[in-house]
Design a protein that fits this description.
The longest helix is centred in the first third of the chain and has 21 residues. The chain has ten helices and eight strands. Helix 5 packs parallel to helix 7 and helix 7 runs parallel beside helix 8. It is globular and about 45 Å long. It is of the alpha/beta class and 282 residues long.
Length: 282
C-alpha cells in the first residue's frame, strides 16, 4: 500500500516550477507519490516534472476529465473522436511524467446529462471508446482507473458495480477502475458489498471525505472501508483527494463555497497520518 496526495488542492497544472518546494515538503511528510492533474497537454513539461520528482523520490499517478466537446458516449462521432484524441494526449503526458495510473471519469464528459438514464447505445459507445483508449494506454505503459461518480456529476457509472461491469465489458487488462470514497458515500448502500463487487477490477482508491476536506473529519464509513480493503488484500495506491478554494474554476465545478480546513498542508499531513493509522488498525 502506498499513499499519494492529489494536487488539485493547489493546482490544475503541476508542471509549474514554483510548486517544487511544496512537492519536497509533501515528500518530507511521508507521501510515497503525487497525483498529477493533466489538462495542459504538453508532454515535454511533464517529462521535466517527472525528472524532478524522480530526484525527490516521489512516484506518480494522474487524473483528468473530459469536457462536453470530448465525450465518448456522444451520438456525434466527431465528439467521440475528440475524446479519444484528448485522452491519448493525456496518456502521452502520463508516459512522459512516469505516471503509472490515470484515473477519472474517462468514459464520459463531466457534468453532461441527457435527462434520462444511460441507454444501451451510450454504454456500447463508451465501451468501444475505452477499448481504443486502453490499447493506447498499453503502448504508453499506463493503467486506466475508471472512476464512478455520483448522480449529480455524471450518469453513466454511479456505483462500483457499474464501473466493474463496464471495465469487464471493455475487456482490456489496462482498463480497471478507481473507487472513490466520496462518491461511494453518496451512492452505495453497503461499503462492503460495493468494494467486494469491484475488487477484481480495482486499480486504486481515492480517499475523499464526504465534504471533500480532511479525511477522517467527516462521515465516510472509514473503519469499514479500510477493513474490507485489507480483508480482500488490496495493495494498491490510496490517494487523498480534497478540494478547496485555491482554484476558482475548480471550486465552482466541485461546489466548494466555504473553507473547511485551516491549511492545505495541514490537511495533507493529517490525512496521511489518518490513512496510516486506519490501515494499521484494520
Amino acid at each position: 500500500m502506498r499513499v499519494a496526495m492529489n494536487l488539485f488542492l493547489w493546482t490544475a497544472d503541476p508542471t509549474d516550477e514554483k510548486l517544487l518546494p511544496l512537492y519536497g515538503r509533501l515528500k518530507q511528510m511521508g507521501f510515497d507519490g503525487l497525483e498529477l492533474p493533466v489538462f495542459n497537454l504538453r508532454p515535454e513539461r511533464y517529462a521535466a516534472l517527472g525528472r524532478r520528482l524522480d530526484d525527490l523520490g516521489l512516484a506518480r499517478t494522474a487524473v483528468t476529465a473530459c469536457r462536453p466537446e470530448e465525450n465518448l458516449i456522444s451520438a456525434d462521432a466527431k465528439v467521440r473522436a475528440a475524446a479519444v484524441a484528448k485522452l491519448n494526449g493525456v496518456l502521452d503526458c502520463c508516459h512522459a511524467a512516469g505516471a503509472e495510473l490515470l484515473g477519472g471519469p474517462l468514459y464520459a464528459a463531466l457534468g453532461v446529462f441527457s435527462g434520462a438514464p444511460p441507454t444501451d447505445d451510450e454504454w456500447r459507445r463508451g465501451v468501444e471508446g475505452m477499448r481504443a483508449v486502453s490499447e493506447y494506454a498499453d503502448r504508453c505503459g499506463v493503467t486506466l482507473g475508471l472512476e464512478f461518480l455520483n448522480r449529480f456529476e455524471i450518469y453513466l457509472l454511479n456505483t462500483a458495480a457499474d464501473a466493474a461491469r463496464f471495465a469487464r465489458d471493455v475487456g482490456h487488462p489496462r482498463c480497471r477502475l478507481l473507487y472513490d470514497t466520496f462518491h461511494a458515500h453518496i451512492e452505495e448502500k453497503s461499503v462492503t458489498e460495493a468494494i467486494e463487487s469491484c475488487i477484481g477490477e480495482l486499480a486504486y482508491v481515492h480517499i475523499s471525505e464526504n465534504d471533500r476536506s480532511t479525511p477522517g473529519r467527516g462521515q465516510v464509513a472509514w473503519s469499514e472501508t479500510f477493513r474490507v480493503l485489507r480483508r480482500l488484500r488490496f495493495d494498491g495506491w490510496l490517494n487523498i483527494e480534497a478540494f478547496g478554494l485555491a482554484l476558482p474554476d475548480l471550486a465552482a465545478a466541485t461546489k466548494i463555497w466555504r473553507r473547511m480546513y485551516a491549511d492545505e498542508e495541514q490537511l495533507a499531513s493529517e490525512g496521511l497520518a489518518f490513512i496510516r493509522r486506519m490501515w494499521a488498525e484494520a
